[in-house]
Amino acid sequence: MGASNTELFTKRQNEIANIMKALAHPARVAIIDYLLKTEGCICGDIVKVLPLAQPTVSQHLKELKNAELIKGSIEGNAICYCINEKTFLKFQQFLSEFSIKMEKKKSCC
Amino acid sequence: MGASNTELFTKRQNEIANIMKALAHPARVAIIDYLLKTEGCICGDIVKVLPLAQPTVSQHLKELKNAELIKGSIEGNAICYCINEKTFLKFQQFLSEFSIKMEKKKSCC
DNA sequence: AATCTTTATCGTAATATTGCAATATACAAT
DNA sequence: ATTGTATATTGCAATATTACGATAAAGATT
């Protein structure tokens, strides 16, 4: 098949999996790193920094945008991509729920 | 190509991406959910709970094990799968680094 | 030893992801 | 209007993922 059957799982499980999937590639982690490190957010600079061709970077940016981890805004001729803090916050909440449950449980083996 | 070029990115970026990839499927999120929710950890119970065939679940468990998010130990005839807290802690550390940087930066657009 | 139970592996089909050259689009500047 | 600059889209090849039936492997039970 190759397609994960989303209907079989909860909305929350699918949401978590989708965010994880968006970050499941080192290039996309590198993009987030870059956006968090520098003042800038210009698409062209991201392309320059990454060791991948422009269309490939564009595709990765699209995936991050689809997952709402970043948002793009037109800046004259260029496009400015920024972290979407809302989604990151949601993600962190999901993960802190994991932590809380882990604290309570403690590994059994 | 279809294979992400890991050599082009930092060890840390690849590590993060690998953990994310392991959790980038709702079935695998569901497995973690289950392990955090119940006392048990028996493979057969996970198979019963998930809406997927036994070989498919086994495959998902293998991926979680490869990413060291869970660890398996033989329990008589059965196998007990448990959360590997060490990797989760590492994951959380990576993410809190993101948070700290996000705090400092604040979205520019 | 024969059988049952539990889990893993193999083989294979369907689909998704990754990467890039070529090309399109869209806005700037001349 | 033409040219340049920045980004997106298309098309395609290579590879990876997902799913499951069939089967294997290994320990438990009779």
What does this protein look like?
Two copies of one chain form a homodimer. With 109 residues, chain A is mainly alpha-helical. Chain A is 60% helix and 11% strand. In chain A, strand 1 (70-75) and strand 2 form a beta hairpin. The first copy, chain A, is elongated, with a radius of gyration of 17 Å. The mean pLDDT of chain A is 92. Chains A and B meet through helix 1, helix 2, strand 1, strand 2 and helix 5 of A and helix 1, helix 2, strand 1, strand 2 and helix 5 of B. The structure holds a DNA duplex (30 and 30 nucleotides).
Specify the oligomeric state.
homodimer
Tally of helical segments of chain A: 5
Note the main sheet of chain A: 2 strands, antiparallel
Indicate the low-confidence ranges of chain A by residue numbers.
none
Order of helices and strands of chain A: HHHHEEH
Task: Calculate the mean pLDDT score of chain A and round it.
Answer: 92
Q: Rough shape of chain A? A: elongated
Terminal CA distance of chain A reads 34 Å
Query: How big a fraction of the residues of chain A is strand?
Result: 5-15%
Structural class of chain A: mainly alpha
The main sheet of chain A orders its strands as 1-2
Largest interface: A-B, 48 and 48 residues
Radius of gyration of chain A: 17 Å
Helix residue percentage of chain A: 55-70%
Number of strands of chain A: 2
Record keyword descriptors for this entry.
DNA-binding, elongated, two-stranded antiparallel sheet, 60% helix, mainly alpha, 109 residues, 2 strands, homodimer
Tell me the layout of helices and strands:
Two copies of one chain form a homodimer.
Chain A: H1 11-22, H2 26-37, H3 43-49, H4 54-66, E1 70-75, E2 78-83, H5 85-105
Antiparallel strand pairs in A: 1-2
Chain A binds a DNA duplex (30 and 30 nucleotides) through residues 1-5, 25, 27, 42-44, 47, 52-56, 58-63, 74, 76-79.
